[in-house]
């Protein structure tokens, strides 16, 4: 079902993904973070919808539809590296910190910091070119807003 998307995601060509594919890659990464602890809660799904609605100016219905599509993509995706590469190629460095904040919003949505979720955020942040210190500061900002 998502074969064309994965083909574009794994292409070695010089072209970066289009906006829609980059949006889907970020959405799938958010879902992957939420599923990392084996408990994809409604709080996490709601937080993903909020992040997507805010980041992409989507209606609640559109955000839920994008998350639902991303759940299918994430279930079929081979690894996290491809998502982060697509995001890194599509999002300027200065804006990637907001991506890491979005990841932390999902991790902290259910009120529990799980080691698996933390591990994937650390990996994703590193692959996005965000160092551990900046990722920790992003987490603290998100935590302070909760």
Describe the structure.
The protein has 8 helices and no strands. It has helices at residues 3-10, 19-35, 42-56, 60-76, 80-90, 93-108, 115-127, 132-145. The protein has one domain (17-145): TerB-like (Orthogonal Bundle), CATH 1.10.3680.10. It is mostly helical. 76% of the residues lie in helices and 0% in strands. α3 (42-56) runs antiparallel to α6 (93-108), α6 (93-108) runs antiparallel to α7 (115-127) and α6 (93-108) crosses α8 (132-145). This is TerB family tellurite resistance protein. It holds the Pfam family TerB.
Strand-residue proportion: under 5%
Total domain modules: 1
Q: Name the CATH homologous superfamily.
A: TerB-like
Biggest sheet, open or closed, and with what strands and sense? Answer: none
Domain Co-chaperone DjlA N-terminal: 23-140
InterPro entries: DjlA_N, TerB-like
Organism: Shimia litoralis
Protein name: TerB family tellurite resistance protein
């Amino acid at each position: 079902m998502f074969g064309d998307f994965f083909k574009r995601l794994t292409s070695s060509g010089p072209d970066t993904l289009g906006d829609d594919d980059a949006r889907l890659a970020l959405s799938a990464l958010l879902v992957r973070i939420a599923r990392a602890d084996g408990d994809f809660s409604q709080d996490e799904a709601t937080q993903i919808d909020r992040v997507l609605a805010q980041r992409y100016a989507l209606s609640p219905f559109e955000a839920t539809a994008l998350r639902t599509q991303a759940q299918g993509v994430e279930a079929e995706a081979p690894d996290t590296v491809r998502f982060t590469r697509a995001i890194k190629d599509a999002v300027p460095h200065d804006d990637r910190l907001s991506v890491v904040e979005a990841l932390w919003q999902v991790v902290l949505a259910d009120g529990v910091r799980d080691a698996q979720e933390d591990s994937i955020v650390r990996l994703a942040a590193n692959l996005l070119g965000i160092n551990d210190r900046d990722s920790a500061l992003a987490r603290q900002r998100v935590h302070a807003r909760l």
